[in-house]
Amino acid sequence: RMEGQGSYTLPTGTEYRGALRDGMFEGEGELRFPNGSVYRAAWHRGVPVQGKYTFADGLEYEDKKWHYCDGYDRRFYTEICSGLKPAGISQLTNLDPPRKIPKGCYDCGDGFYNPETRVIVDYKLRFLRNADDEEHEWIIRTCRKAWDETIEHKPKP
């Protein structure tokens, strides 16, 4: 079994770096996710007992009193760090400019989703997973979609 300091790459591409004991994460270690985010934690028998998640853009998750993008402050992290843009050119996503979404697809956070094939690919268009009914409904309801229809403003008569 794995023992001591080391690293282990999971089939998903996530890498663990840190202490190992009897084949499990033990002591100080971190998970490095393919999207660039990191989870640093103290581990006991493979379970985190205390940790901190940092998103790829540097935003740190706070377990208590998390106010990022809540109803009172809807700014993206890049807007918090760099300031708001003038009216008319506001940001659509934390990434500015936003990713170009393939026609008919949705940006679901870790890749693009095609509702016809129900397949999610990463941003380099490599297969990630098939969406189940629950994830499909959530993506359709909440995620940003590539425009495939013309919308025009119709003033009130």
From TrEMBL:
It comes from the Eukaryota. InterPro entries: MORN, Morn5. One of its GO terms (cellular component) is motile cilium. It is found in: Cell projection, Cilium, Flagellum. The keyword Transmembrane does not apply. Keywords: Cell projection, Cilium, Flagellum, Repeat. Transmembrane segments: none annotated. Its main location: other. The keyword Calcium does not apply. PANTHER family: MORN REPEAT-CONTAINING PROTEIN 5. This is MORN repeat-containing protein 5. The lineage of its organism: Eukaryota, Metazoa, Chordata, Craniata, Vertebrata.
